[in-house]
Every structure is written in C-alpha cells, then in structure tokens.
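Ribosomal silencing factor RsfS
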Amino acid sequence: MAISAQAREILDIAVAASEAKLGINPVALEVTDRMPFTDVFLVVSAESPRQVNAIANEIVDELIKHGHKRAKMEGKDEASWILVDCRDVIVHVMLDEKREFYALERLWADAPEVPIEVTPR
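Predicted structure tokens:
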C-alpha cells in the first residue's frame, strides 16, 4: 500500500529539516499495514545529544511553518533518542550508538523502504 499524500509531504519536510541540521543516514520505512496509527517511520542518526535536539526541534518548526499541527516529542530530556510524532510519520532521531543498539531497520526489516531524496555531502 502506498503512503498518503499528506504522509509524503510530512516525510519530505522532516527529511529536509533533518538534513538542515546535518542528520545522518535517514531511512524511511512504510509501516501502514503494520501500524494502524501511522504510515511511515523515519529513522535519522545524530552525533551528539545537542544535535539530536536540534534535528527534532527543526522538524517541529518546519512542520509548523508548512501549516501542520505541532508534533509531539518524547525523550527530549535525555536527548539520546527523541521520538517526534507527526501523526502520519513518526520520526526517530537517535544517537549513532542507540541506533546501532536498537536496530529499528532490522526490527522492521519486512517493511518496505520509502524512497527519499537525500543531498549527498
């Protein structure tokens, strides 16, 4: 099943926002058929807690600028893994070591990857 146009728009905004704050290796997975409450998981790495916070905040700010409702965030205090709930897209901004340890891409290996545009550095 393809993701909705709204999910695509939110995903594109989130990817661009994460790139603006130098997010690392974004991967989007379509979970529409597996999760009744969202369409896409976006996983992005960061090198420091400060960068995790910066990426999550940039995503929320950009969504608001584009007319979307304020996303909910969890994990801001620890800033090693912040979950940004954008309804149709759930963004996991994680420190590299957390991402390796929890391996969400392997956990959701049966979920098809959603193509995203990433600017090469």
